[in-house]
Design goal:
By secondary structure, this protein is mainly alpha-helical. The chain is built from 10 helices and 2 strands, in the order ααααααααββαα.
């Protein structure tokens, strides 16, 4: 007996599929190329408009008698400092919430809680700014005074404490609340995708719930946690309105987090000064935007390097 042969496919079907593949491939290549062109156009615009400010003589910029780098240094420091504080506060809480939703909470509670976390990401930044300046800042004044009196020996909590609560620590708390749903949502999805066999193998070896999470879930989700944290950091670095509304800025570089004089951020400085700027001041603000662009690019590149290195280490095991 001869094996049944498969009926040949009609040539028209193959032609339609090849045409669809070619169309999809061209659309995908076009979309990727458009992103690169847009990114290059933004970079060219920033560099071209920033050159007059970068080469301008000292004393040309509002708020400082130095050159451009002395003008942008406090802003770059404040941007990174506020975002780093926000990330330090947000990541442990976000990972804990994601772990609770994915592995501990009952389904009837986990699903509504996940929806609520996702809803927080849709709240406009101006609402967070209003909450920060009207509710959070006054509520933190007694805490800042207590920290200045009892922990003032520590440089971060050096006094005098702000009487309004509009400090870089308040801004960091607002930013942490803003990036919390982003980190939580992405981390939760990574936790859910942990292979069931890995978790059951840990239980079979006698591991407790926490040991299973530590040995099976966290190693698998490490790159995802890093990626989610970097996305949250990118949001914190570029946040404008909430920082501009809450922070009481000064052109200083200081690690103290409860004083009334605080370093501003690049995005907030642009939002506050751009409407009344002209001439070289506009070029200076665009040049600070270029610095923020470079900082964001460095952060994302570093995150990509860490994720790729972790994935290679997992493949080599």
């Amino acid at each position: 007996m001869t094996a049944p042969t498969e009926a040949p496919r009609p040539a028209a079907v193959d032609t339609v599929e090849r045409r669809g593949d070619k169309t999809f491939s061209r659309l995908a290549v076009g979309a990727g190329t458009a992103i690169l062109i847009a990114l290059a156009a933004v970079a060219i615009f920033l560099v071209a408009q920033s050159l007059p400010a970068i080469v301008a003589p000292a004393g040309s910029f509002r708020g400082t008698e130095g050159d451009f780098w002395q003008y942008v240094a406090p802003l770059a420091f404040g941007t990174v400092w506020a975002a780093a504080l926000a990330l330090i506060m947000a990541v442990p809480i976000a990972v804990g919430i994601a772990l609770f939703i994915s592995h501990y909470a009952p389904r009837k509670l986990a699903q509504p809680l996940g929806y609520i976390i996702d809803l927080l990401a849709a709240v406009p930044s101006v609402v967070y700014g209003l909450w920060g300046i009207t509710v959070l800042a006054p509520a933190t004044v007694p805490l800042y005074e207590w920290l200045a009196e009892n922990a003032g020996w520590f440089p971060l909590f050096a006094g005098p404490a702000s009487g309004t609560g509009r400090t870089v620590l308040t801004v960091a708390i607002v930013l942490a609340v803003m990036v919390l749903p982003i980190i939580t949502a992405l981390t939760r999805e990574v936790f859910v995708q942990t292979p069931t066999l890995n978790q059951e193998a840990a239980y079979a070896l006698g591991a407790t719930w926490w040991e299973m999470v530590r040995m099976a879930v966290f190693p698998y989700a490490r790159s995802g946690i890093i990626s989610a944290s970097m996305l949250g950091l990118g949001r914190a670095l570029g946040e404008t309105m909430a920082v501009a509304m809450v922070l009481s800025p000064s052109a200083i570089i200081s690690f103290a987090v409860i004083q009334s004089e605080n370093p501003s951020t690049i995005a907030a400085n642009i939002a506050l000064n751009f409407p009344e700027s002209a001439g070289i001041q506009v070029n200076a603000l665009i040049a600070t935007g270029l610095v923020l662009f470079v900082i964001t690019l460095i952060v994302n590149s570093l995150a990509r390097y860490i994720v790729n290195r972790h994935e290679r280490s997992l493949e080599s095991r």
